[in-house]
Amino acid sequence: MARNKTKNTASNRLGGCDLRVLRDNLDEMTGRPSSASGKRDNPDSSSNGATYASNKRVRAKKRLDQLRKEMDEATEKQSAAGADMLQMLMLMREDADRRAETEDRRRREDREAVLAAEKREREERERCSVARKLLRRRRADTKSSS
Question: Per residue in 29-42, pLDDT tens?
């Protein structure tokens, strides 16, 4: 408890408890070794005795690997999007073909219906004209016989 003579012994924020006990047992509570001498480890350094240049190379290699991974993911997404686009185009083409076939069939059926109606009208006109001719002949025959 004698190590921290200049620091406060109590804190109102912590409920007025004795801070000397907390400070003395801080290493055991946090799990840090007592030989750490108060300095934190640098998370970017790959080894304890590494130089700035070697750390820079390691960071650059990590960043390059990350960029490669992102490029691969982007390429996969692009190829998947291209396949989806191709599938959509094929679907649209099939739909357009189906619509064209339906329209052609409808036009053909309409044309056949019109031709059939014209044929019926023509036959009916022919029957009427034949019936008129027969009627005229009968009238003419009845006039000539009377």
Answer: 777 665 555 555 55
Largest CA distance in the chain: 160
Tell me how far apart the alpha carbons of residues 86 and 94 are, in angstroms, rounded to a whole number: 12
Tokens of 139: 């009238």
Residue 17 contacts residue 24 (beta carbons within 8 Å): no
pLDDT digits (tens, 9 = 90+) for 75-89: 998 888 888 888 899
41 phi/psi in degrees, rounded to 5: -75, 145
**What residues form DSSP beta bridges with 10?**
18
CA dihedral sign of residues 91, 95, 101, 104: negative
Helix or strand holding residue 121 (H, E) = helix 52-145
**Inter-CA distances, 97 with 83, 91, 110, Å:** 21, 10, 20
Domain segments of the chain as ranges: 1-38, 53-141
CA angle 12, 15, 21 (to 5 degrees): 95
The CB density around residue 23, as the number of other CB atoms within 10 Å, is: 14
Q: Which helix (H) or strand (E) holds 126?
A: helix 52-145
Could you tell me which of 105, 129, 127, 109 has the C-alpha nearest to residue 117? Answer: 109
